[in-house]
Automatic annotation (TrEMBL):
Compartments where located: Cell membrane; Membrane
Residues spanning the membrane: 36-55, 67-90, 96-117, 163-182, 194-214
Full protein name: ABC transporter permease
One protein family per Pfam: BPD_transp_1
Species of origin: Streptomyces albidoflavus
PROSITE patterns: ABC_TM1 (PS50928)
SUPFAM superfamilies per record: MetI-like
Domain ABC transmembrane type-1: 32-211
Family (UniProt): Belongs to the binding-protein-dependent transport system permease family.
Topology in the lipid bilayer: Multi-pass membrane protein
Record keyword Transport present: yes
GO biological process: glycine betaine transport; transmembrane transport
GO cellular component, one term: plasma membrane
Length: 227
């Protein structure tokens, strides 16, 4: 009587497979690192653009309408159409994905930063001006710090959204874990699809919790107010 066949979950193509994790850990690690890079870079660039745009919209009310309108229109463009529109400029490259995610993140960041700036009490501004604060010092030491809770909320949403949208980059070969999901769905490789999907969720939750922790550190007065 022949010995029983080994329990090979890869051969049986099961959804949960420890052997997949052990034999493809380097592939998974590379995909996770690419996913993190394709998330962090566009969100950071979008934040660098969103802050001055929100400040301009707050300083000059006539600019608020056009800034919000343009960023909102960009957000309504479907991701596949956005990448197609950017393709002649960036080609099939990681820059294509980064540029698309920057444009998507702008709406969430600009709206929240602007809402935070508008929520700063006028009496607080007047008190700072009475103490000799100029426009730049007022912005950096009073308005932006008080706008942080709203800005961080927008940053958290933009980051989590970027984690999910990065997977769409698989259509051009730069999707991080999305590449594994896309390839796994084409070949019905269950373990690969599930593992890559779960890792995307883990990255999104971890990023949100990390930013929440940063927000609590940067805004201790919100904890005091809530206690």
């Amino acid at each position: 009587m022949s010995p029983p066949a080994p329990d090979d979950c890869l051969a049986r193509n099961t959804w949960i497979c420890g052997e997949y994790l052990s034999t493809r850990r380097h592939i998974l690690l590379d995909a996770v690192l690419e996913h993190l890079q394709l998330t962090a870079v566009p969100v950071a660039l979008a934040l660098a653009l969103a802050v001055p745009l929100a400040v301009v919209a707050r300083r000059w009310s006539w600019a608020a309408g056009p800034v919000l309108a343009v960023t909102t229109i960009l957000y309504t463009i479907p991701s596949l159409a956005m990448f197609s529109l950017l393709l002649p400029v960036y080609g099939l490259s990681a820059s294509l994905v980064v540029a698309g995610l920057v444009l998507y993140s702008l709406t969430l960041l600009v709206r929240n930063i602007l809402a935070g700036l508008r929520a700063v009490p006028e009496e607080t501004r007047q008190a700072a001006r009475g103490m000799g604060y100029g426009p730049v010092r007022l912005l950096l030491t009073v308005e932006l710090p008080l706008a942080l809770p709203a800005a961080m909320a927008g940053l958290r949403i933009a980051t989590v959204s970027a984690v999910s949208l990065v997977t769409i980059g698989a259509i051009v070969g730069f999707g991080g874990l999305g590449n594994l999901i896309y390839a796994g769905m084409n070949t019905y490789f269950k373990a690969q699809v599930l593992t890559a999907s779960v890792l995307c969720v883990v990255i999104a939750v971890a990023a949100d919790l990390l930013l929440l922790g940063v927000q609590r550190l940067l805004t201790p007065w919100t904890r005091a107010a809530g206690s």
